[in-house]
Structures are given as C-alpha cells and as structure tokens.
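check this one:
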Amino acid sequence: MASANDTFTRGDENPLANGTWTTASTFQAVRLVTNKVQGNSADSVSYWSAETWTADLYSEVEYRGAAPDSGPALRIQTGAKTCYMYNGASLGGAVCKFIAGAFSTVATRTATWANTDLCRLEAVGSTLRAYRNGVQIGADITDTNITAAGGGPGIFCYGAHTCDNFLAADIGAAPATPFPPFRHRIQTIGG
C-alpha cells in the first residue's frame, strides 16, 4: 500500500517534478515557487507518480491564504482530464470533478478556510469525504463516476493560488512518514 509526503522545501520547479510528480494529462502544470505550490494558469493538476495507488485513498494539503482556489486531488487519471478535487474557494468549499474534461460540482460544503488549515479529500469506493483540520465537513458524498484504481493523489491549483505540505496514502496503509509541520498539525487538531 502506498503513501507519500512532500514539504516542498527545495528550489523552484516548473513544472513540479522532483522525480515523483507528473502533470496530469490536459491540465496545466502545478509549479513550486518559494517552498509552496501554485498553479500556472487556469486548472493546474499534478499527481504523485512514484507509487502505484489503490482506488481507496486520501490526499491532503495545507492551505496558504484564505479562500484558496486550490486543494487536494485524487483518482487523477493519466489518459483524460479526469479527477476529484476539493476547491476551498467555491462557496466555502466544494468537492468537484472533471470527467473527460467536463467540470462539475459534486457537493458544496460550508467552511471558512484560513492560512495553514489542513484540507483532506478521501475516497473509499463511491464514498467521498472532505475534512478541515481533521474534522469531516458535511455528510458522506456518493459519486460513482471515478472508482477505478490507479488514479493517484495530487494537488489542484487554479491560477496563482497556493498550498503546501502534501500528504497522501492508500486507506489502510501506514501513514507517510510525518514531516516537521506534523507537530503543528497535532497542536492544531489536538489542542
């Protein structure tokens, strides 16, 4: 079972690379600028390509800035503009999807996002869940459009919106080795 993390503490990259990231087909590339990721223009999606992923997985990022037009993405397919993603800017947040290039909102959520908030998107079978700082936002969501294994986790950014500290794993896998900001996560989530 796969797991991954990236703190983005290295030199700038355009596109995001480091031997583990790939730009998703027909999306713009996510890039690394001053130790955080941001989009190039329009819809930018990159995925962690150094592992083989199951269909049941999560993707998590730390937001940089309020109302971020960015977030975690998962089940990113390599042959078509297809994935699920969480967009923190849409009405307080929304689980969205691209299916062969067609964009739609799966479910809206009510959340006020702040700098350093953690956003996690999780998929198990046809069930999707969104989390803010470890607490589920709204009820479970059912969507059967993208259930195939092999589509990995990654990051979505629109335009110059940014996020940081990526963490992902197959559901049931040992978590990725925590990186230094993890101490902040414990303080934020656990008090």
In short: Residues 72 and 120 are 6 Å apart (CA to CA).
